[in-house]
Structure formats: C-alpha cells, structure tokens
Amino acid sequence: MNALSIEYRPIPWIRISRKAELTHPDSWGELTSEQLILASEILKGTLSDDRVIQVMTSLPKKVIRRLRPYQKLRVIELLIFLNDFTPYHEFIIPKIAFLSRPKPRLKDEYFGTFIFAEAHFSRYEKSGDLKDLDKMIACYYRTRAFREEDIEINAHALRNVDSTIKEAIYLNYILIREYLAKTYPHVFTPSSEQDQKQNSSWLDVFDAIVGEDLVQQDNYAKLPLSTVLRFLDKQIVKNNTREK
C-alpha cells in the first residue's frame, strides 16, 4: 500500500486548507475482496469517480466531496495497475456462498480440476452465460476435494450470488492463468491467440498423457496440477531442443 497526503478546503469559499492522509493499493495483490469486486466494475466503466475513490482509498466521504475534479482525477490515476493483468497466484475472495477458495498457487489441485475449470472458462468467454461462469467457479470454490459430480451442486449454490462478485472471481482467475503462464512459459503463451487455442484443448492434452492406459484414467486426472504442468514444460523444452 502507498500513502500520500492531499490538500482540500473543508468549506470551498473559505481559503482555509486541510490535509488528509490516504493509502491506496498499487498492485493486484494488495486488493481486498471489496476492492477486487470494485475493480471488476471499474473495468466495465459502471462506477462514479467518488465511489471508486471511496473504496480504493482510505479517504472519508466528506473529504472526497470537497476534492476538486483535478484532484479526483489524480487519485484515480494511482490505480493505473488495473489496466495491466499482471500474474497473481491466488484467489482474493476467500468465500462465496458456503464455498471456500483453493490454496495459493492452486496447490494440491488436481489436473482434472484444471481441465474442467478451463473448459467452463472457455465456454463463458464465448457465451457470456453466467451458468458457465458458475461452473468454472464451482471447480475451484468447494467444501471438499474436487469431484466432478459436485460441479452442478456447487454451481447451483452460486446462482443467486451477485453477478459482480462472480465476475470479480473471473477477473481474478485471469490473473492466476497469467501466473501459470509465467511459471510454465513453454506450456502457455500469455495473452495471445495461441494461448486461447492451446487452452481450449486441454482434454486433448489429457488424452495424450493417458494414451491407451484407460484403466488408470482416474489416477491421471488426480495427479497434482503442478506436477503435470512441470512435466509438460520440460517435455516441450526437450522437443524444441531436438528439433534444433
């Protein structure tokens, strides 16, 4: 968090100024749950300047009302980091409905969990249907270890949750995908058309790993995500070396 002071006039027509101290986040990792939800709305352009400043800084409402337009603009400019989807390793919102977020870096998540989540993520990006988003969130926000049959149950529990909260989690997942792309650079190509094409075929990747060993299919699906991605990253490096 960064801190700065700002000068304002408590009574506009009297030339007596006061200083207010404010703090503001300067990275995604410093956002609270409320601020992440707000960030999602900011990127859609649906909020007033006063509301943005109120939630994103520590300034009280009475001070915000006394700021000049130029000052408000300068405060909002401090949130420039929201325009850059930099890698971040965990879900910021701890709970939604009765469901809890996974561990940071998707630790202990199955490869199969990731496959299902990516499938629903891709569908939501194409359809914009909140039911697809509910299913994506339901893959990660759970009450127990991932089970395919729990997706519908958990997604149903999310139906009545405010869409702005779910869209904030979607935004958060984009940052986590960027983190995975940075960690396993040969498996992912961040923010590119190739990445979109690559991530739409994770079922094909799974089939290639399983091969003809269908009896062990469930065991492959329960492999740790980090183990599979690390293996794929190394294999791609080896293959690229051989081609040279």
3D structure, described in words:
By secondary structure, the chain is mainly α. It folds into 2 domains: 82 residues, no CATH class; 149 residues, no CATH class. Helix content is 54%, strand content 7%. The protein has a two-stranded antiparallel sheet. A two-stranded antiparallel ribbon has the order 3-4. β3 and β4 form a beta hairpin. α1 crosses α8, α5 runs antiparallel to α6 and α6 crosses α8. The longest helix has 21 residues. It is elongated. About 5% of the residues have low confidence.
Beta strand count: 4
Q: Strands across the major sheet, in which order?
A: 1-2
Q: Find the structural class using helix and strand composition.
A: mainly alpha
- Unreliable spans are 190-200
Q: In one word, what is the shape?
A: elongated
Distance between the termini: 47 Å
Q: What is the number of domains? A: 2
- Main pleated-sheet profile: 2 strands, antiparallel
Strand percentage lies at 5-15%
What's the order of the H and E elements? EEHHHHEEHHHHHHHH
Radius of gyration, Cα only, in angstroms?
22 Å
Mean pLDDT: 85
Contiguous helical run count: 12
Q: What is the helical fraction, as a range of percent?
A: 40-55%
